[in-house]
Amino acid sequence: MRAAPVVALVGAATVSMSLLTGCGDDGGNDGATGAKGSAAAITVDATDTTCDVAKKELPAGTTTFKVTNKGSKVTEVYIYAPGDKIVTERENIGPGTGVELTTQLNAGKYQLACKPGMVGDGIRQDLTVTGQADHAADPRLTAALTAYKAYVNAQVDDTIATTGKFVAAVKKGDVAEAKKLYAPSRVGWERIEPVAESFGDLDPRVDLREADLEKGQKWTGWHRLEKALWKTKSVKGEAQYADQLVKDLAELKAKVSAETLDPPITPASMANGAKELLDEVATGKITGEEEIFSHTDLVDFAANLDGARKVHELLLPVVREKDAALAGTLDKEFQNVTDLLAEYKKGDGYVSYDTVGKADRKKLSTAVDALAEPLSRLAGVVSR
Amino acid sequence: MTERRTEDLRVSRRRLLGVSGVGVLAGAAAGAGLVSAARADEDKAPAAGGAIPFHGAHQSGIATPVQDRLHFAAFDVVTDDRAKLAGLLKDWTAAAAAMTAGRPHGAGAVGGIPEAPPDDTGEALGLPASRLTLTIGFGAGLFESGGKDRFGLRARRPAALVDLPHFAGDRLDPERSGGDLAVQACADDPQVAVHAIRNLARIGFGVVSVRWSQLGFGKTSSTTPEEHTPRNMMGFKDGTSNIPGTDAELLDRHVWAAPADGSDWMAGGSYLVARRIRMHIETWDRTSLKEQEQLIGRDKAEGAAFGRTKERDPVILDRMEPNAHVRLVHPDTNGGIRILRRGYSFTDGSDGLGRLDAGLFFIAYQRDPRKGFIPLQRSLAADGLNEYLQHVGSGIWACPPGVRQGGFWGEGLF
Q1: B72 near B182, Cβ under 8 Å?
Q2: Are B121 and A380 in contact (CB under 8 A)?
Q3: A39 touches chain B (CB under 8 A)
Q4: Which of A159, A239, A270, B229 is the most exposed place for a label (fewest CB within 10 A)?
Q5: A351 and A207 share a domain?
Q6: Which residues in chain B touch residue A366, judged by CB atoms under 8 angstroms apart?
Q7: Cis status, amide bond into B65, omega within 30 of 0
C-alpha cells in the first residue's frame, strides 16, 4: 500500500454527472472501456468540416472531453502533445454518436484534432493547459477515511481477542480446541491485511507461509502453529511462538491506533487495498496455498471479501457520482461472489477447501476475476 | 502505440490491398491435415509489420495469407444476460479493430491516470501490427446450454453448426474442448497474438471466462500456393493442395456460407473446426523412411505423390497404399469435398513421461461441416497414421461474416 496523492475535483459541474455517464453506455456493459465521466467535461462538437472545442484554456489535472459527432462521416479525435505525440485518441465515432475521452494533462501546449472520415491530419485546435493539479480533498473522502480507520481498529481488536483464546488453547496443549479457534482468530487480520502489510516486517512475522521461508529465516506466526496443529499434531515447544503472535498483534494495534498512520491511509490506498484483498483471494485462497494444512482457505476468502466490500461501501457516495456504472457493477459483482461463497457455508464457518473440486474452484475464480477487474479501477476513480 | 501515426498505417493498408490479396487453400487433406505453407521471409503477402484490414465482407484470418504464429482461445459465457453479451461483442470489436491496426486498445497502455491500471496491458507497445487477425466463432452453447435458451438465440442456431460426432480413436479432454466462443489470433509475432488474446480475456471478465487456449508456433498449411509448403512435426510438407485464399470461386463454393444455406445471419461467414492432434513423436521417429512415406502417400523430401516427381504434380491415388493419408482425404476419394486448412504445430513442453507433448493444432474452415470435416474425418478411420496420432481436443464454431464500419462481431445475430 503506497501512498497516493488525492486529486479530488469537485465543484459545480458535478451535478451534471449522471447525465454524462449515461452517454455511449450500451447494453449495460461497462467493464472494458475504462474511465467514464469526471468533474467537468468539455464539449467537443465534431462535424465533417468543423471541430468546436468549448474551452481551450484548461487547468492541469484530469480533463474529460465529451465528443459528439454531428457530421455524416465516422470521425476520430486525437489529443497531441508537441511533435504530434499522441496523448490519447478515440476512433470510430459514428455519426450521431458520442464518446467521452478522459486524460491527465500537465501544464503545456496541446492540440486537439477531429478527423472526419478518419483520414489526414484532421481539423486542429490549440489547447493551453496551465497550473497544477487540484489536490483539495473531498469532505466525503475525508469521512470515508475516518470511518475506515475505525473499521481497521475494530478488526485488529477482534483479531487480538480471538487470538488470545486461540493462543490459550495452544499453550494448554489442547489441540482439538486450538484447531477450532485457529481460523476465526485470523478473520480480523484477513479483513485489513493490506494495511498490516504496509508496516514492513510485521506481516511476515505474523502470516508467513512455510513455502515462502527464505534460507535462514525463522518461521513464526499463525501458519507455524497451523502446521503444528494439523500436520505434526503436537504443540509441544510452540508456546513461545504463540506468545510472539500475541506480541506482534499488540504492535499492530499500536500502529493502527496512532493519530497519523505511517504510511498514511489515503482514498487511493484504501481502494488499492480492496483490490489487493481480491489479489490475495485470487493467488492464495483459490489455489488452496494459504491454509495448506488446515484447508480453512474459505474462511480467509470470506474475510478478504468483507474487507474489500467495506472499502467499496465507504467510497460508494463518491464513486456513484464519479462513475455510476462502475458503482453498479461493483455492487452486483460483490453480491455475486458473496452468494457463491455462501454455498460453501458450514456451521459457523466454511467447508474444508480440500473438498472443493476443480470445477467449483474454477467457478469461484471466474467470479473473483469478474469482481477484481472492475475493482482495480476504483483507485483511479477516487483519485481524479 | 503512440509512436506510430495513423497515416502510416493507412499507407500500409493501401499497399496491402494492392499486393497479393487473399490467401489460398486447397485440396487434399483434412483430418491430420498434413500439408503445406511458407515461411514469413518468403511470403509475397504483406510485409511482416503490415496491418490486415479488420472490416470487410468476410472476417479476416480465414482466407488471409497464413501468419507464422497462433494463439487460439475458447471462452465460456458466464452470464445469462443477453445485453451484457452483446455489449462485450461490441467492446471486443472495438479492441480488435484497434489491435489489428497496431494500436493499443481503449485509452492505451501508458499516459492515463497514474492511480488506475492502464486499459491496454502494454506488451505490444512499439511492435508493428504484424499482420494480426482476430477471428471470432460462436459455439453451440451460445444457442442452447444445458437445455436452456440463455440468450433467446435457440431458433437462430444454424443447421450446419452441428455437434461433432464421436470419431474412431478420439480421446477428447473436456478441458481442451468446446467453448461458447472462440477467438483465433494469428500474427507474425507471437507476442502480438498473445497480447490480443490476453486483452480480450481481460475485457471479458464478468461476461466470459477462458475455457482453454492453445499456442501454435509454426504454421502448417499455407493459403498461398506459390509459396514453399511448410512442414509439420512429422517432417512432411502439409497442405500442398489447400484452397487458395485468392480463388474467390473455390472460396464461395467450399468456404463461405451462402444466404441459401439456411441461416441468413451466417451469409459470408464460415464454420470453424479445431482439433488438438497429439502426435506420438517418438514412435514416429523410429519408423523407417519408407513406411513414413507410405503412410503419408508422398515422398518426404519433395512432397511428390507416389509415382510423381514434383510436389504439385497431380496425385495418382491408386499408386498409394490403400491406407495412405493423402489418398483417404483426397477430394477424388471424397466426392470433391474440400476444406480450407490453417493449422499450426504446437509443442506444450513434455508429458512427464519423457516425451514431447507436441502435434498439430488443426484448424479448418468450411461452408458446412456436414459436407466438410465430418465426412473427411470419417474417411480417416482407416488412416495408417492413426497409430501415431490422437485427437485430444475438439471444437466447432460458427464464424459470422465480416464487420462493417461501425458494426460489431455477430451484429446480425443480435
Answers
A1: yes
A2: no
A3: no
A4: A239
A5: yes
A6: 78, 209
A7: no
Domain count within chain A: 2
- Determine whether the interchain pair A384/B108 forms a contact, defined as Cβ–Cβ distance below 8 Å: no
Cβ contact B390:B169 at 8 Å:
yes
Residue A355 has pLDDT above 90, yes or no: yes
Single-letter amino acid code for the residue at B304: A
DSSP-derived 3-state class of residue B185:
strand
**Does the structure show a pLDDT above 80 at A1?**
no
Do the beta carbons of residue B370 and residue B162 sit within 8 Å? yes
- Among A97, A130, A163, the domain-final residue is A130
Mean pLDDT score of chain A: 86
A91 to B98: CB separation less than 8 angstroms, yes or no: yes
Instruction: Flag whether pLDDT at A51 surpasses 60.
Output: yes
A153-206 pLDDT tens trace: 999 999 999 999 999 999 999 999 999 999 999 999 999 999 998 887 899 999
Secondary element (H or E) of residue A248: helix A239-256
Q: Are residues A68 and A147 in the same domain?
A: no
Residue entry with cell 444466404: B259
With contacts defined as CB-CB under 8 Å, which chain A residues touch B84? 27-29
- Three cell numbers written together for A264: 498514511
Instruction: For residues B65 and B50, give the distance between their C-alpha atoms in angstroms, rounded to a whole number.
Output: 12
Bridge partners (DSSP) listed for residue A111: A80, A126
Boundaries of domain holding A210: 139-382
One domain, residues A247 and A345: yes
Where residue A65 sits, what CATH number does that domain have? Answer: 2.60.40.420
Within a domain: residue A4? no
Q: Around Cβ B279, how many Cβ atoms within 10 Å? A: 23
Task: Count the alpha carbons within 13 Å of A272 in the hemisphere toward its beta carbon.
Answer: 21
Do residue B116 and residue A383 have CB atoms under 8 angstroms apart? yes
C-alpha cell at A199: 508496516
Predicted TM-score of the model (pTM): 0.78
